[in-house]
């Protein structure tokens, strides 16, 4: 009888492990592959002087394909690998707990929203320019993980709402400052982190 129980436990463990691996590969694994392929296409296009399809610029309704492509396109190998590292770790945790479909919807949606916010902000300041990269989505994933874990969820359930608001903004600002720079899309980082923090606080991607 004990042997049967051990066998069942082992089978269940292997089944769980296979499910986790499937979500890791189908979630962040697919994102990284798409990032690599789109970035390679952009780098190839750069040789011919044409990167327009991969950079998000206004007006957004004239070249709608820029919205998703700009999330996956990256300016160089350093840009690509830095975001890939974050996505593997934070994205892996989100994909395992939320599932592949929810992960991809969250990744693409927050990435597009962050990019649109960055372009809108620079356009409002009279500074023409575009944006590309998954940094906004990557920080959204990190903020989601930070705000949705059991410890932070328990703490935030027992404090006033204004403290929750400060915590959400604080996480977003801290993540933004951590990666801030003169040549970096700081608005996209902030918006991505804010979206992730809010989504994490309400456990937007929970499956139960």
Distance between the termini: 33 Å
Shape: globular
> Do you know the CATH architecture?
Up-down Bundle
- Beta-strand content estimate: under 5%
**Number of domains in the coordinates?**
1
In total, the number of strands is 0
- Largest pleated sheet: none
CATH topology: Rhomboid-like fold
Low-confidence stretches: none
Fraction in helix: over 70%
Count of alpha and pi helical runs:
8
Instruction: Determine the CATH superfamily.
Output: Rhomboid-like
CATH hierarchy class name: Mainly Alpha
pLDDT averaged over residues: 87
Cα Rg: 19 Å
Structural class: mainly alpha
Order of helices and strands: HHHHHHHH
Structure description:
By secondary structure, this protein is mainly α. The protein has a single domain (about 1-200), classed as Rhomboid-like fold (Up-down Bundle), CATH 1.20.1540.10. The protein is about 75% helix and about 0% strand. It is built from eight helices and no strands. It has helices at about 1-45, 65-70, 75-100, 100-125, 135-150, 150-155, 160-180, 185-200. Helix 1 (about 1-45) runs parallel beside helix 4 (about 100-125), helix 4 packs across helix 8 (about 185-200) and helix 7 runs antiparallel to helix 8. The longest helix has about 45 residues, at about 1-45. It starts with a helix and ends in a 7-residue tail after the last helix. The model has no long low-confidence stretch (mean pLDDT about 85).
């Amino acid at each position: 009888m004990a042997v049967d129980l051990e066998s069942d436990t082992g089978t269940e463990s292997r089944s769980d492990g296979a499910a986790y691996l499937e979500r890791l590969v189908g979630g962040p694994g697919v994102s990284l592959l798409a990032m690599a392929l789109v970035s390679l296409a952009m780098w190839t296009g750069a040789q011919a002087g044409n990167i327009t399809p991969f950079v998000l610029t206004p007006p957004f309704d004239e070249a709608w394909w820029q919205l998703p492509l700009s999330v996956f396109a990256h300016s160089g190998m350093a840009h690509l690998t830095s975001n890939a590292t974050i996505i593997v770790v934070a994205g892996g945790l989100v994909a395992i707990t939320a599932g592949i479909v929810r992960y991809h919807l969250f990744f693409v949606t927050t990435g597009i929203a962050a990019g649109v916010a960055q372009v809108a902000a620079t356009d409002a300041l009279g500074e023409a320019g575009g944006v590309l990269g998954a940094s906004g989505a990557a920080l959204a994933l990190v903020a989601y993980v930070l705000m949705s874990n059991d410890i932070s969820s328990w703490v935030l359930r027992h404090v006033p709402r204004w403290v929750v608001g400060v915590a959400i903004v604080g996480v977003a600002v801290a993540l933004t400052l951590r990666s801030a720079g003169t040549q970096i899309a700081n608005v996209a980082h902030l918006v991505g982190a804010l979206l992730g923090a809010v989504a994490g606080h309400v456990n937007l991607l929970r499956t139960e």
